[in-house]
Amino acid sequence: MATVIPDSTPEQDSGQRIARRSLHDEVVERLRDLIVEGELEPGKRVPERVLCERFGISRTPLREALKVLASEGLVELLPNRGAVVAPLTVVELDEIIEVMVALEGLAGLLAASRMSDAGIVEVKALHYEMLACHARADLHSYFKLNQAIHLAIIEGAGNATLVQTYGALNGRIRRFRYMANLSGARWDHAVAEHEEILAALTRRDSALLSRLLSDHLRNKYQHLKQAYEAEAQAAE
Amino acid sequence: MATVIPDSTPEQDSGQRIARRSLHDEVVERLRDLIVEGELEPGKRVPERVLCERFGISRTPLREALKVLASEGLVELLPNRGAVVAPLTVVELDEIIEVMVALEGLAGLLAASRMSDAGIVEVKALHYEMLACHARADLHSYFKLNQAIHLAIIEGAGNATLVQTYGALNGRIRRFRYMANLSGARWDHAVAEHEEILAALTRRDSALLSRLLSDHLRNKYQHLKQAYEAEAQAAE
DNA sequence: GCATTGAATTTTGCATTCAAAATGCTAGCA
DNA sequence: TGCTAGCATTTTGAATGCAAAATTCAATGC
């Protein structure tokens, strides 16, 4: 995450050209999106020239952005041979999840005691919105609300470093979320887990919330991993 | 951490000029050292021009390095006003330790079951070397061995992402270690904790090792924090 | 004497340029 | 036909150049 103190330029996303705030920071975000959304494929070279033209910028800010993304682990820099989108092996995926499970646990522990009542109410609202999406089988909105709930809980831990650390890891695996295609049973189960999570948060049961969040991520990952391995196999 | 695949250039640190591997990556390391060692003071501006001359490089690689360090949280980029060494507030220190405690706990959990016998033997050797330093009251060497032990355990968890994540956070607080001046009683206590840690690791007691490592870091931090707050107060 | 304004200087952000490395292509040879 | 050497092209890494923003500082007015 680029620690740039943003100036107060408003978020006018109307133009496709880059103009607002520091250029390189904008480019970092754009590139990250391209990678997360899969437009830049893992293992493939990041075409400097093409992207420069596409963004209407010179190579300097683009290269700065690549360095930042490399430090986040999203791309790999090969000396004198440019940048490639970091491919994520199953081993790395396992590693990242292992760490994230611990961080979710920490978030639960802290959020249960530190989150404001208003925060809990907000999570509750998001939860019910998410249930609505489940009922409508609106997977895309469900994912977004799901992410929003987890983010709200992590932010509720009142630890900006935790938010940042979790976010960096989440960024590396987020692109796989695009593949996860919840089957009916698994989806129902996930929703049931969320019910428990909400209940534990409402009761401010630290130990339970911690455990539930960790388990939930582990379970989610089981599914994600199966989908990934299936895809990886299919890709051969 | 800059994810650069290093080429096989040997680590010849003889000359003060930068020549080996990708320049920007070298600069990142050098700048990090300057910050960690306190030569660049927190809150102060990072003088681009001066550092360029000092390193004998142009502004481009230096600026790239600053972007990377910003993403690590070591510096803050102020748009149009350059970079400053990120000052670490007590609140941020608290946050970082909170996350690191969780990561140490995870490391203990994993290392107890995954570490090789050879790895445990190595930790044991480091441990006794450290005891020797304690006996000789050689604080500097003690610190180095202490760090080596913790690193060995964290690496013993067999999770590169954990190593990297922990390392990034550790980098942000390492400069404070330079202040920590272990009092006799506290030092003895720390050594006693290390004895317990080694015993738990030898017995491969996951739960215990996890708890001990977390507690140990928390305790260490108590001391560190007091020293920091005393210093901060004295600085006024 | 102090605050304010505005010009000179410095610093920053990005584009451009240049040299070195890597890549691709062609031709020559077995 | 297949392989390799050598050249041309492209791409990368870093230096330099240039315009805009910020800072400094002195002169002016109060």
UniProtKB/TrEMBL annotation, chains A, B:
Domain of life: Bacteria
GO terms, molecular function: DNA binding; DNA-binding transcription factor activity
Keywords, comma-separated and alphabetical: DNA-binding, Transcription, Transcription regulation
InterPro entries attached to this UniProt entry: GntR_C, TF_FadR/GntR_C, Tscrpt_reg_HTH_GntR, WH-like_DNA-bd_sf, WH_DNA-bd_sf
Keyword Transcription regulation: yes
Alphabetized PROSITE patterns for the sequence: HTH_GNTR (PS50949)
HTH gntR-type domain mapped to chain residues: 21-88
Protein name per the record: GntR family transcriptional regulator
